[in-house]
Amino acid sequence: MKNNFTLLLAALLATLAAPASALNIFACEPEWAALSQELAGDKANVYAATSALQDPHHVQARPSLIAHARRAQLVVCTGAELEIGWLPVILRESGNPDIAPGKPGNFEASRYVAMLEVPTVISRSEGDVHPEGNPHIQLDARNYLPIAQALTKRLIQLDPDSTAFYRERLKNFDLRWQAAIARWEKQAAPLKGQPIVVHHKAYAYLDNWLGLREVAELEPKPGMQPSVAHMSQVLQQLQRQPARMVIRAAYQSPDPSEWLAGRANIPAVELPFSVGGDDHAKDLFGLFDDTIARLLAGLK
Amino acid sequence: MFKHVLLCTVLLTPVCAQAATEADLRDIRAQIEQLKKSYEQRISQLEQRLQQAETDSRRAENTAAQAQATANQASRPPAAANAFNPAISMILSGTYGQFQQDPAIPATGFAMSPNNNAHTRSFSLKESELGIMADIDPQFRGVATLSLAPGGGLSAENAFIQTTTLGHGFNLKFGRFFSGLGYLNDQHSHTWDFVDQPLVYVSMWDNQLGEDGVQLKWLAPTDTFIELGAELGRGRGFPGSDRQNHNGPGAAVLFAHVGDDIGYSDSWRAGVSLHQTKQVNAVSTGVPDLAGTPGGVSDSFTGNTRTTGLDFVWKHAPNGDTTLTNFKLQGEYFRRRESGMLAYDIAAANVIDSYAVTQSGWYVQGIYQFMPMWRAGLRYDQLDPGTAQVGALNAANVISNYGYTPKRSTVMLDYSPSEFSRLRLQLAQDKSRQGLTDNQLFVQYIMSLGAHGAHQF
User: For a tag site, which of A59, A122, A201, B174 has the least CB within 10 Å?
Assistant: First the structure.
């Protein structure tokens, strides 16, 4: 009887201890959830705070997000003020000092890549500008190499018992990712130098990587809704300086890009923008496979 | 084969001479050809290796450049002496108001409440709010919200310290803050969805319950949001009577909030609150009486007040993306029990006897963003003045039953060119005062300058 009780107690303790042994990771955007999963495998419970169908600038500080942040050992976010409208209140309300900015439990991916479009004039008259640079770093596949390395370091720091495991995962990811980059660059060769119009200024890193040339934006200022007046100007500009396609993210309304596409007689291309943005972008590899396939289809 | 040729050449020159000229020449050519091929192969191999090395070094350069950029970002020197300046925000707000009745008349049955509905006729500056916030040190964060009254003067609306390192889901706040009870109470006026607060907040909390005290909140370690909070305060804000000369806390609050998501599109939060305080010599002026004294009389109440509340909010946005369309439904209910001694007409008769009443009120409102930048809202308010138990001495003086239910309906439309600016039109039919229907019109602007903190749910 006593033995049985001890066994029961041991089993109970084991079940209680089991979730504690896995790292709870709170990822602000789905691309970081996917990367965390690649690197931490079953050593982590990864929670994606947002989906690819949400504008990452405007997210409600929902109670469920605060509840999940409460138990997280690590938050993985873009940084560069992308989440400034919602993350600070979540971190504060969570009562969890381990994930406060500057702590090992707070990882900002944008710190590990070279930022583009760092503004020289910081004024709200320029719209939704980010003083640290364009925060949409997730569409240059090359950025994932230094980020993965830094994130692995962080995982090891938080969970040193699994050092060998994380190193092996990183090596494995690195190999597959480098091969994939070579493949994507080859596939995307026809995109080089192609002029495009974008809905929001969210493609600086994609352009920088694949050599696409952004000639106009549908938003009059970053973060401002496209207006007919502004889009008519873009349309006029396209008559002098044609573009091959107009690009929007999965979370954006199709109306403005379809409006322009119909009048300029160019295709409107919806990109998944992040993991889960469409049926093919199921993981990071799928995200880029699909992004490039859709861009190439837009050229035809 | 080379050997064979050599053999021919050296030993058997005469014999081989003829054969060497034909077959061996062919052999030599073939050998040279082969040599050439093998060298070409090796050269191309070398070329490939060179190319690989170049790619590798380019990649290394890329990494190095990125590392350099990261290092640059990290080692950027701080921007001189103002690097530690706190975040500063300023809210500028103003209204145009048009009413058919005097805004100072209280809701029927609530003359013993402050009734400060903040309505002003014609053009007026609303409170401008100056917010200053920063981390103080690794343990504390400070927030001050100073309100600039339109008539001049600066007052501390909020001035509190928050702990940042308690952990385990605990958050401690002390200083002057808006109480965490209900849903709307701790939201600043620039985030309100209507120009004014619901009637129940105007009558029961003097718009918003502000307290000088301590607040402790605890968040449960569960996937469902469960938050428990407790506050002790001086009883500064109504229904507290701000007892100056009294040791110990004068008011206590308990609240609990529960919330979760239903998929990405829907999320909700619900809560219960309890507030308790003691009023001491709380004087109300202009209270109507049974004798019909013109302008009412001044009464003084001393006793306990206990308020319970329920609140809920539900937000819907397709796929959780609020930028195009979204919908918010919220409602709150408060019920207050007051019991103690009432001094009737303190200026003249001063008749003191027991007094107890239970009053309540609720509102429900929906806000729909039907297209980017444009929102429409509808609100319905109602109050119940209750029936008072008045002691025998005052039975002929104090009105115990007003027999009227104050109510109001409000519609609003607002336009927000960006998240930092908002223009609003609001129309209301206010029947909160018996026999005095008031059709109200408001035009409002709310602008936010400087640092813009993240908004609560």
Answer: A122
Q: State the residue range of the domain holding A203.
A: 189-299
Q: Residues B427-446: pLDDT tens digits?
A: 999 999 999 999 999 999 99
Give the end of a domain, one of A154, A183, A212: A183
A193 Rama sector, left if φ>0, alpha if ψ -120 to 50, beta otherwise: left
B28-60 pLDDT, tens digit per residue, is 778 878 877 777 777 677 667 766 666 565 555
Residue A112 has, within 13 A of its CA and on its CB side, a CA count of 20
- The percentage of chain B sitting over the pLDDT mark of 90, rounded to a whole number, equals 68
CATH number for B99-119+177-450: choose from 1.25.40, 2.40.160, 2.60.120, 2.60.40.
2.40.160
Full-model pTM: 0.84
Residue A2 within a domain = no
Q: Is A133 found in the same domain as A41?
A: yes
In 3D space, the residue among A256, A249, A257 whose CA is nearest the CA of residue A287 turns out to be A249
- Are both A239 and A155 inside the same structural domain? no
What are the tens digits of pLDDT across the range B52-102?
666 565 555 555 555 555 554 544 444 566 778 889 999 999 999 999 999
Mutate to test the interface with A, among B55, B172, B219 (most CBs of A within 10 A): B219
Closest CA in chain B for residue A96: B167
Q: Hey, is the C-beta of B166 within 8 angstroms of any chain A C-beta?
A: yes
Of A66, A115, A128, the CB nearest to B219: A66
